[in-house]
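Board notes (copied after class):
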Amino acid sequence: MAARQTAVPRPAKKAEYELRFVTRQAELGWRDLVATTRNAMADAWDYLTRNPLRDEPKNHELRGALATVTHAGATHRQRQYELPGGARIWYYVDGRVVMLVNVHTAHPNATK
């Protein structure tokens, strides 16, 4: 019997949130950060699928002009998850889905 080498996707618990990319930039930024900071991104995945609405120093709502984002005709509260080295994940939560809007590989100028 030939061995298959297909990756096994991580199953989500019923209480967990699903992650989705809203933009191509978010997808590319995520890929780049996984390539350079795999452990931090695994921690980000765990946090965002379990506690995306919990306010903590590394995870909070954005303020000012960045506080909301409009997608598909609906306005949502935009949040930020901070990674080591200044990288940031900007997202909003729609039901049980975390929608990744931007994944910045360095500290974004808009929040400096």
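Comment from the instructor: The chain has one domain: 18-106. Residues 20 and 99 are 5 Å apart (CA to CA).
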